[in-house]
Amino acid sequence: AARIIQNMDPTADPCKDFYQYACGGWLNRHVIPETSSRYSIFDILRDELEIILKGVLETSDQGDREAFQKAKILYKSCMNESLIEQRDSLPLLEALTTVGDWPVASADWNKTKEPNWSMEEKLSIMNSRFNKRVLIDMFVWNDDRDSSRHIIYIDQPSLGMPSRDYYFNGGNYQRVREAYLQFMITIAKMIREDKNMSKDDSFVQEEMAKVMELETEIAN
Hints:
11 helices, 8% strand, MMEL1 protein, metalloendopeptidase activity
């Protein structure tokens, strides 16, 4: 209650400016940090929670339950920047191999990979191994009609860009769209280079344009 009162401005007339009356105290006591586009009580709570979690994750894992040990191992692996730099693109190349390679980063994908490539199998691997839903989103959640049970939901997944607007609208959307395509081209070239393949700029450009076309059709 005290916090709510602090965030209000009781000197303002709610009939004239209800926003100032309800939020004036907050506006007077807080400035949006330069690193943020917004700032609310939830952002403050998140920052406080991250500090607490950091302390917990950096403590010794002796005697911890398995779930806590896994969380600490994951945290340490993310903080080990020297090993991350040393491994370079190897984890990504291994992930690509797991899902059947990437045609744009393969010399003969159509001959060596495509005959044994199964979309159903690869979609399930993307979901189970990498928590990534492609083309189809599938998850288990409470049944809306019977909250005592869980059911399998099938839905559309998120797009590569934040929303459908990015694929069709002009202005800033078009600039983001062009940058997105260029980003894909850059990553493909980097992977080809790491696999000691020729750059072949025109081939990469054509392949990534096809990817963009497919994403646009899905967005539509």
